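A note from the maintainers: we've had questions about how concatenated examples are separated. There is no special marker in the raw files; a new sequence line simply starts the next protein. For clarity in this README we add a label.
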Amino acid sequence: MNLPQIDNRDLHNEIHVWAVDLDQSNLSCVEAIQELPEAEAKKAGRFHFKIHQDRYVKGRFMLRSVLGMYLNSDFYDQEFHTNLYGKPALQKPPDDHSIRFNISNSENICVCAFSQYSEIGIDIEKIHDLPDMDRIIARSFSEEEKRRFCSLPLPGRTQTFFKYWARKEALLKAMGMGMSYSLNKIDIAGNENSPQLVIKIEESDISNQWTILDMDIFTGFASALALQGEHRDLAGRVRFFHPADEYVISFKEKNNNIFLCGAEI
């Protein structure tokens, strides 16, 4: 995997998000799976359909390739440490200089986020018709989220649902709690005119401030990034990397403050 060479010192002031269309990657999964640690290779083998196995292998290989670049080492076969809720981290105990990372995939799209100093979470969701959406809203949305959602015109509700869901998932992943934390206890409705919001969590054992940023990465997908602490300038500090040159051009036209570099995978 050929990647642009980026010094991990860039993470001192930036948040890096790597995004790839896994179905467009020409990575050989037969070779790549042999480089992964045994646990991930076994998990890949449990997928029923080959396309899902290939997507998993390519996503994990990308994550490990980028981590290896930041750490200046071969990282393909090293095991991750996971907390009680399954969030992966480097084996070395976290300190102020550790790289924090998170990964998410939906269908053919995989995104990986990297930061230093702050815990991070990322989520991406394919926007699609969801027959049980009302049931999920009743169980997982806060009262304010329900009120705002119900005030929307019907044509825009599906997209908003997945935007809210991506925000919640990214936040819970940054917190390291996953789905163990009650989704209806957090309110991520925010200001509809702003892609960024600061969330306060009233729990004694959890950092009480988190910043969430909506990301328009791929058409037809909702995605969000969550970072520990209050970061009013987060949108200007996120740097994206994507392998498709044609997408780089279109994304720059929409977001002049975000920079992308091509990576051949």
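[label: protein 2]
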Amino acid sequence: MILFSTSFFKRKRIFSLLSLVLLIVIYSQSTIAVIYSLPKEKSRLIGENLQITIPDGNKHSLEYFANQFQVGLSNILEANPGIDVYLPIPGTKIIIPKQLILPNTVHEGIIINNAEMRLFFYPKNTNKVVVLPIGIGEVGTETPSNWITSVQRKKNNPTWTPTQAMRKEYLKYNETLPKIFPAGPNNPMGLHALYVGRLYALHGTNANFGIGLRVSHGCVRLRAKDIKYLFDHVPIGTRVQFINEPIKTTIEPNNTFYIEVHNPLSSTQEQFDSNEQIPIFISSEIREFLENFDINQVDVDKALRRRSGMPEDISKKSSKNKNVIN
């Protein structure tokens, strides 16, 4: 069962789009991976946002468009508050949030930021980063955070062994799970799995609607083409780091300040079900960044309330120069 936090549908509208570097889309027969060139000169801002219009006669859910543009539902819902998730209205303009700030981590292996529901893969000996949307653990069965591990094994056509607690949970919905779910396209783990640590895996899914949502029992879910890409390109032993950072910031080489704010993950079911915004924790590192004299504090406050999930220029400069990259 997929649950939605009502806070997704109440976020305010972002006013402008930002753009910086070329977004490269690599196509192959079996996979489509979104690959960005790493920025130069200590920049951490990559990609450019897109805008599309829902076509006349649309019969598709929002997941259809999220899938087409390699983003998760949470990413689209943050950027487009109030949009109909089941049947977007024809003529509606949608921002596709493809611009983002790289996490302030090492550019190595796989970085998973639970708060933004994105996976960052830095292929070894390249100047690229692969960015993929993910689904993560529900309240009570959270995906780990603040954890460094590695890919310990890979499995083609994995089977799924539900725990006793899982089988009991499904019985509430009159569903009986087998002790071992056989491999195949109907398996909730999909067709490929990368096992990290002892209890968790990055794996596919038989329900794409959950990508960008909290739907798993702690593992990380990816769309079929995305997990296939990782399965083919990520070696065993690759470093994997889990973080939970709803706020990302960067000072660009031209002294432009950006902040990217995501809604924090609910820590209780009450928070998840509430219409109220979840309080956002500002770390000492972020607080120090925001105290810079060249930052517009009014814009910071707006970004922290808006939580658009997209980079916003918070530099102290005249409005006519906003979002201009020198």
